[in-house]
Amino acid sequence: MSFTVEGQTVLITGAASGMGRLYAERAVTERAAAVVLWDVDADALHATADLLSGAGSSVHSYVVDLASLEEITAAAAAVRNDVGIPAVLINNAGIVRGKYFWEHDQAADIALVMSINTLALMHLTREFLPDLIAAGNQTRILNVASASGTLSVPRMSVYTASKWAVIGWSDSLRLELREAGHNHIRVTTLIPSYIRTGMFEGARGPLFTPLMDPADVVDKAWRAMLVGRARLQLPWSVALGSALRGVLPQPVWDVVAGRVFKVYSSMEHFTGRAR
């Protein structure tokens, strides 16, 4: 029997806008019983909750700073009390800083990016995983990483580090669950290149890697999550780049990535979303 979100509770981080809101809309469209929205932007979060309300699913919104373990723990407790244990976790929230490493502020950039992009996924999943294991019901976890977690990218060292860690943790979690016999919980790691959400405004897609449409990425990621696919790399050139990096000597790969694919110059004109 295939997995469906119909009648289930879906929790989405970074749900106030962008792809997070698209995931929430998809959950409502597919008749989830409850959709739980987490975001730090209170105004945008409440606007999204209002937009989704009345469409059939109960909508629950929580203002959560994902850089804070205390807030994650408190919000998870509130979800347990208000809604119950989610059957679907979509770890979508993320931020980016596009500059040379030595230009990063240690608190506002390095610590914040690592906390939101990496640690928050671990903390949120850890909050609910024991309950999900004990329940024995079909569960899906979608962890959003990035193609920059597979290839080094200048002007994005901290973001790259955060997403590299997500890929390693997410796939290790998948294997641990399988090894322990918890096959009812499936973990999918999404590894996309640049997406047209505004987050990477000014970035230029490498060769064969145009900036992707958010709705198309969400559709593909959603379907991969439902069937429990282990890894989804988008577009196809991301897998090609990973393969070439693995077989080519480093000096040769630097030439290919820098001069042919233009990976190394993709962030030269990055401006990002206005904060």
TrEMBL record:
Q: Which family does it belong to?
A: Belongs to the short-chain dehydrogenases/reductases (SDR) family.
Keywords in UniProt for this one? Oxidoreductase
Q: Which InterPro entries match?
A: NAD(P)-bd_dom_sf, Sc_DH/Rdtase_CS, SDR_fam
UniProt-recorded name of the protein: SDR family NAD(P)-dependent oxidoreductase
What PANTHER family does the annotation carry? Answer: PKSB (PTHR24322), RETINOL DEHYDROGENASE 10 (PTHR24322:SF736)
* Family annotation (Pfam families): adh_short (PF00106)
Organism of derivation = Arthrobacter flavus
